[in-house]
C-alpha cells in the first residue's frame, strides 16, 4: 500500500487545498507544509502486535484558516470484492441497495420478488453498489473502536489501522474513498476529523419533507485554526497480516483492538440493586391489567398512548421481561410473570401458531408500521425470541406444576410454524405474512436465535423435526451470513442493515445448538458468530463533552454495545439478552477471554439505571424516574452534536437486559476445574486460597448500596452442569455497603458448592 501524509485547508467543511507527502512505512522521516510554517516528523517502531507510528507536527505561525493533518493509506490494486470494515459502523462497505426511506423505514418488494430481493438499507454511510466513486466519512465516536480496514479474500490478507479517538483536543476522523475506475481505495486517519461537505444525520430534513436517516445533511465540521507554537499529532498502529478466512480477520481485530486505547470499570451499582429498582418499576409502571379476571401482562413501555409500547413480542421485551419474575419467591412478581405467560398464550396466537408482533387494547397489529387496524405482517425475529423464552418459562412452570392443559401444545404449535416455514423456503426470512405463511422479505440473519429456539424445542418436546430444522437453518446461516461477515436485520426498523442484535442472537442460537447436540461444528459456528458480535462492543472510554450528562455522571463506555449501522448509538447491554452465551462459550472452550468480554458488558450496564441518588439526567431537562433506563449512550453526533453525551427521556429495553443480567449472570463465578474465579458484579473479590476442593474469597462491597451477590460454582469438565434457569441454585450472599467478609466455597458435596462465612 502507498502511504501519504495529507494536509488539508478548509473553508467550513469544503477543502480548499490538499497537499500530500509520500512516506515509506517503517522508515522515519520529516516533512513540512507551508501553511502555518508546519514542520513535523513521522517515526516508526515495531510493536509487539504491529507497526506503531507517531506523527508529530508543530506550527511556527498562525494558520490562515482551519486545517487538518492525517495519514492516508491507498491500495492501488483495489478490488470491489474486498470486505471494507469499520467496527459497529461498516460491514462489507455497507454495500447494499440504499434507498431514501423515511423513519421507521419499511420497504416491501413485489410479492414474487420478496424471497430473493437484494438487502435494502436506508441512506446510511455506505460504499456504492453501483457507482464507481463513493466514500464513507466517520468520526471516531461512530465506531466501537477507532479503527478501520479491509480484508482481501483472494489474497487472504487483512489490513487494519487502529488510532485514538481524540488527538490535539479533537475527535479524530476516518474516511474511506473508493474509485473503482482507477482501482484505488484510500483509508485516511486525521485530526481533527472533518467530514467534507456532507454528514449522516437522523432526524427532520431541513426542507421539512419528513424524518429520515440521511447522509446528505450539510456538514458543520471544521478543521482547526492552529496558532503559532501549537502541536498536532496522530498515534496509531498498522497491521497487514495473513488471514485464511473472514472469521480469522475478525478474530485478529478483536485480539488487537486494545492496542491504542482501553477503558476502565468502577463499582457503582450492584446487580441486585439495579434489579431491585427495575423490578419495582416494572411492577409499578409496566403491568397492564386486561381480561375479565384482571389477568394482564408486562408491557414493553410505559406510555399507554403509544401502541408499540403496550406489547411487542420478543425483541424489546415482550415475553422476555417476565422470565426473571418467575424466579422470584415473592407473590406479586411471580404472579404477574405467570399472568404474562398465560396472557400471551390466551390472546396473542393466530391459528397457524404464530404470535402477533404488536398488541394494544384488544387489537393485534402487524409489523409493517400500519397501525390503523389489525395486521398480519410479522418480524420473524420477534417470534424467534419469543419461542426461545417461552420454552425457558415452560421449563420453570412445569417444574412447579403450574402448566395448564394445552400450554405445551400451543408452544409446540409455534415451533411447528417455524418448521413449516423452513420446509417451504429453506430459510425463514425477515418478515412474513402470518396468515398465508409467505416470506415477504427474505435475505437477513435477523432471526438467527431461531436455531437455538428450535434446538431447545427438540430438548423439551423430543420432536425430531425441530432438531432437523435447527440443523438445516444453522447451516444456512453459517454459509450465507457468518462466513460472509454480514449479520443483519435484527431490529424491525432498520431494513436489512448490519446490527448487533442479529449478531448476538446468532451466537445464542449456535451455542444452544451445540449444547443440544454436542457437535463441534456448531461450537465453531458460535465462536465465529461471537467474533462478529464482539465488534459491536465498545472497548475504550469515550471522552464526552464536559457539559454533557454522561461526563457529569462519569460514564465509562467500555462494554456498551452499539445498536446498528443506522441507529448509530451505543447502548447499555445487549438487546435483549444477558450475554450468558459468553459464559457458556467459556464453559465449552476453556477460553477465559469470553469471561472478560462478559465482564465488560454486564458491569457497564448498571451505570445507566436511574436511582434517587444517581439520577439519569435527560436532554429534555428531566431526570429519569427510579428504575428507568434509556437505550442511548451517545458517542456519535448522528442526532446532532448537542446530543453527544446526552440521554433521551423515556423507558427502554435495557431494563429487560438488567433484569436478565441478575438472574443469568452470576455476580461471582467459580470454576473448580482450574481454580478460576471471576467477579462480574460491582464487588471487589480477592482470592485468599484456592485448591481443588475449596476456594476462599474475601468480598468487599465498595458501593453505597446493599448487595445480594449471586455465586455460581461450576466444573466445566461437566458440560451439562449449567444449562438454563440456574438462578435458583446460585448462592446469595448479602453484603451491606462497605462491608468486607470472607467466604469459603467447596465442591465436595456436589454442586452448587457450599459456602461458609468466617
Description:
This protein has 758 residues and is an alpha+beta fold. It has three domains: 2-89 and 125-256, no CATH class; 271-664, Glycosyltransferase; 668-757, no CATH class. Helix content is 25%, strand content 27%. The protein is built from 14 helices and 38 strands. Helix 2 (271-286) packs across helix 14, helix 5 runs antiparallel to helix 6 and helix 9 (500-517) runs antiparallel to helix 10 (520-534). The longest helix has 20 residues, at 380-399. It is globular, with a radius of gyration of 26 Å. The model has no long low-confidence stretch (mean pLDDT 95). InterPro entries: 6-hairpin_glycosidase_sf. This is Glycosyl-hydrolase family 116 catalytic region domain-containing protein.
Provide a brief overview of the structure:
InterPro entries: 6-hairpin_glycosidase_sf. The chain has 758 residues and is α+β, with helices and mostly antiparallel strands.
* CATH topology type of the largest domain: Glycosyltransferase
Shape: globular
| Strand line-up of the largest beta sheet | 3-4-5-20-13-12-7-8
At the first level of CATH, the class of the largest domain is Mainly Alpha
Q: Please compute the radius of gyration using only Cα atoms.
A: 26 Å
Helical residue percent band: 25-40%
CATH architecture field of the largest domain: Alpha/alpha barrel
Largest sheet: 8 strands, antiparallel
- Taken as a percent bin, the fraction of beta residues is 25-35%
> Could you tell me the mean pLDDT?
95
Amino acid at each position: 500500500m502507498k502511504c501519504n501524509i495529507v494536509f488539508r485547508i478548509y473553508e467550513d467543511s469544503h477543502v480548499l487545498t490538499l497537499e500530500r507527502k509520500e512516506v515509506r512505512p517503517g522508515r522515519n522521516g520529516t516533512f513540512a507544509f507551508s501553511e502555518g510554517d508546519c514542520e513535523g516528523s513521522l517515526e516508526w517502531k515495531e510493536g509487539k502486535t504491529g507497526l506503531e507510528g507517531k506523527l508529530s507536527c508543530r506550527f511556527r505561525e498562525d494558520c490562515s484558516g482551519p486545517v487538518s493533518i492525517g495519514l492516508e493509506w491507498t491500495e492501488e490494486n483495489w478490488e470491489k470484492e474486498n470486505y471494507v470494515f469499520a467496527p459497529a459502523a461498516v460491514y462489507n462497505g455497507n454495500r447494499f441497495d440504499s434507498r431514501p426511506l423515511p423513519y421507521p423505514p419499511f420497504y416491501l418488494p413485489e410479492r414474487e420478488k420478496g424471497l430473493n430481493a437484494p438487502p435494502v438499507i436506508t441512506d446510511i454511510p455506505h460504499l456504492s453498489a453501483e457507482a464507481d466513486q463513493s466514500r464513507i466519512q466517520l468520526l471516531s465516536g461512530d465506531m466501537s473502536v477507532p479503527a478501520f480496514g479491509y480484508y482481501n479474500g483472494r489474497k487472504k490478507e487483512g489490513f487494519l489501522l487502529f488510532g485514538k479517538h481524540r488527538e490535539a483536543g479533537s475527535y479524530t476522523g476516518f474516511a474511506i474513498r473508493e474509485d473503482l475506475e482507477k482501482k484505488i481505495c484510500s483509508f485516511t486517519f486525521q485530526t481533527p476529523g472533518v467530514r467534507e461537505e456532507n454528514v449522516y444525520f437522523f432526524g427532520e430534513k431541513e426542507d421539512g419533507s419528513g424524518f429520515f436517516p440521511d447522509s446528505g445533511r450539510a456538514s458543520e465540521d471544521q478543521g482547526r485554526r492552529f496558532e503559532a507554537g501549537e502541536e498536532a499529532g496522530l498515534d496509531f498502529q498498522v497491521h497487514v497480516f495473513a488471514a485464511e478466512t473472514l472469521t480469522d480477520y475478525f478474530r485478529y481485530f478483536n485480539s488487537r483492538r486494545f492496542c491504542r486505547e482501553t477503558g476502565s470499570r468502577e463499582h457503582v451499582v450492584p446487580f441486585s440493586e439495579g434489579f431491585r429498582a427495575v423490578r419495582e418499576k416494572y411492577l409499578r409502571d409496566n403491568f397492564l391489567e386486561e381480561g375479565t379476571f384482571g389477568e394482564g401482562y408486562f408491557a414493553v413501555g410505559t406510555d399507554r398512548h403509544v401502541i408499540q409500547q403496550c406489547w411487542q413480542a420478543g425483541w424489546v421485551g415482550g415475553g422476555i421481561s417476565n422470565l426473571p419474575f418467575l424466579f422470584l419467591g415473592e407473590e406479586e412478581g411471580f404472579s404477574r410473570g405467570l399472568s404474562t405467560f398465560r396472557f400471551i398464550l390466551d390472546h396473542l396466537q393466530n391459528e397457524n401458531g404464530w404470535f402477533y408482533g404488536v398488541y394494544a387494547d384488544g387489537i393485534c397489529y402487524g409489523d409493517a408500521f400500519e397501525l390503523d387496524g389489525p395486521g398480519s405482517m410479522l418480524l420473524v425475529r420477534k417470534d424467534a425470541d419469543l419461542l426461545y423464552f417461552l420454552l425457558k418459562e415452560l421449563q420453570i412452570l412445569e417444574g412447579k406444576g403450574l402448566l395448564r392443559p394445552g400450554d405445551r401444545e400451543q408452544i409446540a404449535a409455534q415451533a411447528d410454524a417455524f418448521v413449516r416455514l423452513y420446509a417451504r423456503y429453506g430459510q425463514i426470512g425477515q418478515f412474513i405474512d402470518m396468515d398465508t405463511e409467505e416470506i415477504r422479505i427474505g435475505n437477513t440473519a435477523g432471526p438467527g436465535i431461531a436455531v437455538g429456539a428450535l434446538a431447545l424445542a427438540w430438548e423439551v418436546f423430543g420432536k425430531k423435526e425441530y432438531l432437523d430444522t435447527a440443523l438445516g437453518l444453522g447451516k444456512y446461516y453459517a454459509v450465507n451470513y457468518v462466513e460472509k461477515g454480514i449479520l443483519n436485520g435484527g431490529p424491525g426498523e432498520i431494513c436489512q442493515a448490519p446490527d448487533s442484535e442479529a449478531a448476538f442472537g446468532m451466537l445464542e442460537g449456535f451455542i444452544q445448538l451445540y449444547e443440544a447436540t454436542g457437535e463441534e461444528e456448531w461450537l465453531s459456528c458460535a465462536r465465529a458468530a461471537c467474533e462478529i458480535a464482539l465488534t459491536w462492543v465498545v472497548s475504550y472510554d469515550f471522552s464526552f463533552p464536559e457539559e454533557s450528562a454522561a461526563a457529569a455522571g462519569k460514564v465509562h463506555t467500555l462494554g456498551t454495545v452499539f445498536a446498528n449501522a443506522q441507529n448509530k448509538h451505543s447502548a447499555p447491554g445487549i438487546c435483549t439478552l444477558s450475554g450468558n452465551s459468553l459464559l457458556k462459550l467459556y464453559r465449552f472452550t476453556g477460553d477465559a477471554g469470553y469471561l472478560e468480554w462478559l465482564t465488560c458488558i454486564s458491569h457497564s450496564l448498571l451505570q445507566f439505571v436511574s436511582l434517587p441518588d444517581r439520577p439519569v439526567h435527560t436532554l429534555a431537562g428531566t431526570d429519569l424516574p427510579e428504575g428507568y433506563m434509556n437505550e442511548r449512550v451517545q458517542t456519535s453526533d448522528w442526532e446532532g452534536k448537542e446530543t453527544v453525551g446526552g440521554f433521551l427521556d423515556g423507558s427502554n429495553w435495557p431494563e429487560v437486559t438488567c433484569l436478565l443480567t441478575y438472574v443469568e449472570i452470576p455476580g461471582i463465578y467459580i470454576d473448580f476445574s482450574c481454580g478460576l474465579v471471576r467477579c462480574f458484579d460491582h464487588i471487589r473479590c480477592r482470592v485468599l486460597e484456592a485448591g481443588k476442593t475449596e476456594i476462599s474469597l474475601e468480598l468487599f462491597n465498595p458501593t453505597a448500596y446493599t448487595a445480594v451477590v449471586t455465586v455460581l460454582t461450576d466444573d466445566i469438565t461437566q458440560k451439562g452442569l449449567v444449562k438454563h434457569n440456574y438462578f435458583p441454585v446460585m448462592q446469595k450472599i448479602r453484603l451491606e455497603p462497605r462491608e468486607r467478609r470472607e467466604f469459603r466455597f467447596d465442591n465436595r458435596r456436589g454442586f452448587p458448592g457450599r459456602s461458609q462465612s468466617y
